[in-house]
Write the structure tokens for this entry.
Amino acid sequence: MGSSIVRRMLERGWPGVNTGGKHSGMLNAMYLAGLDDWFHEKVQEVLAEPKIITHPNIADSSSRMRPLVLAGKIAEARAANEIFHRERVTAGGLTQHTTARSTPGWVFADTAYMVPPSQAILGNHDFAFSELKGFHKMLAQDDGLLRHVFNAEIPESESYVGIDLWIDGTAWGRATGWWMAGVVDCLEVVPEAKWDRELVAMYEKTAARAIECQERGLWRATIDDPYALIDTSATVMIGYALAKGYQLGVGGEAANKASFAALEGVMRDHFDWETATLRHQQFGPMIVNIPSPNPRYVDDGNAYGQGFLAALFSLTADGVRVRDRGVRSL
């Protein structure tokens, strides 16, 4: 299993891997595509590192636990999970993305992909669903699109201009992608009878609104701003979530069509076939979304996009069926 183009996408992205979130995105794509030998080889590289859970990127690094479970490294995943829960820091009842001294109280949308899927596959379903619903309630606009970072430690009554609350108050494409991908990766491992129906409704609302914002298959950095830059990393994240969600039974036919349109859009206008590089990704990691044409904020070959593009390609062009991989929680 696993086409050569998918392998080339992942080979192009792997040198840029330097955090847990990128590790998990790349490793999850390898596993989904059926590149099993390579997947296990790269998991061994992760295990060779001094620690699985690291600071200040505690949420980022916790995302490595899902690939560990997929690789059968159950004891290692459970040991890492004990460390994560012991050292986890919360704000507003949710996991802080980072424990850095400069970010007390900051809740990131990114954490929705880093923490809940690992917790779900370890069997902590209620915790995973609670986190996902909490991120949506804290970070989503009324229409369901997600913003990036909220400071949950400052009471709204004490805010003067709002910038101390909303580090980035725009509806960010990649924030919406992180959350949607986190939801479908959780639903995949939990029996449908045990799905949280409030969470499913949140997902359906966000997916429907995201599809409304799609232009020629693509999404923008500020997802609801027609003047913002196209962001191919947001596009492949959202496309991946829609494709996987559709196979799991959420999102409907509109999600299926949008996922194929996303792949067609990036492969047509934003992919270098010679080097297997996804171009025109928004530079990352970013704290504040800057919808600027300045090339400083545009990146090529970033692991964020390469990993999710490989996963999206597998689910659509290669016809991989999620349920055929047999992924379930412990």
